[in-house]
């Protein structure tokens, strides 16, 4: 009556490898499998509830039929006491019919009760298996996430120091060296320019001193 978690086999069996080979996301697929199992459990619970209701209905009918059997027996006894043998006979005839019906209802009720017990047991097994699969799912998800993280890290690390990165560093190093050379050249040119200006400034200072010396000597009549 139940699928009994046919889909679960895809989680714990070889289909998990097939799933991975097809590049399906294990985390999403495992979540989907759990939703499928939850759906199976809800269907099973509904079936069990329906069976229990059927069992209770049959039990009620059996009880009513058996109560009528007891009632007809009491009526037959009462008719005998009243001296009405015909009425007693009719009561006993209906009692016999009711007894046959009660026995049939009892057999149906007992079968329904057995079915209910079996379904309850299967439902319990399904819930237990679901909990086991839930723990397994959590473990598989953690392993899948860990594997994806390791793969990403390995790919990242493999790119560090690769040809493209190394060539990029070399280009940047050449640029820095070029900047430094340009800075040194600019500084040398600036120093050369300052030295030339300094010589002219010194020459101007010398001319100024010579003029002042000549003026002083003239003043003192030393010329």
TrEMBL record:
Keywords: Coiled coil. Residues 107-207 are annotated as: Disordered. Residues 198-207 have a biased composition (Acidic residues). The keyword Cytoplasm does not apply. Residues 121-148, 163-181 have a biased composition (Basic and acidic residues). Residues 34-61 form a coiled coil. It comes from the Bacteria. It holds the Pfam family PspA_IM30. Belongs to the PspA/Vipp/IM30 family. This is PspA/IM30 family protein.
